[in-house]
Design a protein that fits this description.
about 190 residues, alpha+beta, Alpha-Beta Plaits, disordered N terminus, Acetolactate synthase small subunit, EC 2.2.1.6, transferase, AHAS_small-like_ACT, acetolactate synthase activity
């Protein structure tokens, strides 16, 4: 009998070789976390992320059920699939957490962000700022002789693109709400 031969480039898979089944690719996920609205809950959720070195790209929270005293935290985070799974499991184990939904894997969802952008400029830059704002469907919510404040809603990429076009026109100041997201359909 000849010895078993493994071809060059082929890998042997062992039940103990977990790395062969894991992806190291970084993914971005949007998590919706329904929690009891009480003091300290948000700090505990944030503590879970910071204590383990996980990054939060966006965070929004608001009460969604006044009678039931529940709030919804929307978190955009990134990591390997294993890190995302670990985050979800750790969130689910927290006592004030009622539900954790990974909108990124559960189907189609809608996400939007609101930003207020102050652009300070004079002369022709002001005309150009208004032209760009019209293209992006941004609203002027404040105006002085030296600045505009625009309100824009959309995806984070849309807001980033708008800001990049405004920066050459003058000093830009920015306030963003963070992502709000919800699943589509039923």
């Amino acid at each position: 009998m000849s010895p078993l031969k493994i071809e060059q480039g082929a890998s042997s898979h062992s039940a103990y070789d977990l790395r062969s089944h894991m992806s190291d690719e970084i993914e971005t996920h949007t998590l919706a976390v329904l929690v009891t609205n009480e003091a300290g809950v948000l700090a505990r959720v944030i503590g879970l992320f910071s204590g383990r070195g996980y990054n939060i790209d966006s965070l929004t929270v608001a009460e969604v059920d006044h009678e039931g005293h529940r709030s919804r935290i929307t978190i955009v985070t990134s990591g390997t699939p294993q890190v995302i799974q670990q985050i979800k499991m750790q969130l689910e184990r927290m006592v004030p957490v009622h539900e954790v939904s990974d909108l990124s894997v559960e189907g189609a969802f809608v996400s939007r962000e609101l930003a207020l952008i102050k652009v300070m400029g004079k002369g022709e830059a002001r005309v150009e700022a208004l032209r760009i704002a019209e293209i992006f469907r941004a609203n002027v919510v404040d105006s002085t002789l030296e600045s505009f404040v625009f309100e824009i809603t959309g995806t984070p990429d849309k807001i980033d693109a708008f800001c990049e076009l405004m920066r050459p026109l003058g000093d830009v100041r920015l306030a963003r709400t963070g992502v709000a997201a919800i699943a589509r359909g039923i």
